[in-house]
Amino acid sequence: QVQLLESGGGLVQAGGSLRLSCAASGRTSGYILGWFRQTPGKGRAFVAAISWSGSMTSYTDSVKGRFTISRDNAKTTVYLQMNNLKPEETAVYYCATAPYVSSWPPLQTDFASWGQGTQVTVSS
User: Fold this and answer.
1) In whole angstroms, what is the distance from residue 66 CA to residue 42 CA?
2) How distant, in Å, are the alpha carbons of 28, 43, 100, 106 from that of 23?
3) What is the mean predicted confidence (pLDDT) over 33-61?
4) Dihedral angle sign, alpha carbons of residues 102, 106, 107, 112
């Protein structure tokens, strides 16, 4: 079983930056790691994902060029660097793990374990 703990959320002005971290414990070797976000009344939306080796990444179109996902397997941690944040990106951000995927980019249904989330608020 995998446990995930996100950190790094907070309040930032539009155009600002935040770096989210997600520490994973348990069986994580070979796992895909991803970030999702959710706003009230809406479902979780994919943001980014990274393969075990880090050689493959995927981003939702709206964050390409502004967000960067990375991982440190020695620390079993995944990061999401978010630059030039926009008010509409205010959400709870979740990290998640997928033990394996059949295709790339992964499907949301591939992700089996989820963290509790961290709030990101972008003020205008």
Assistant:
1) 23
2) 11, 23, 19, 20
3) 95
4) positive
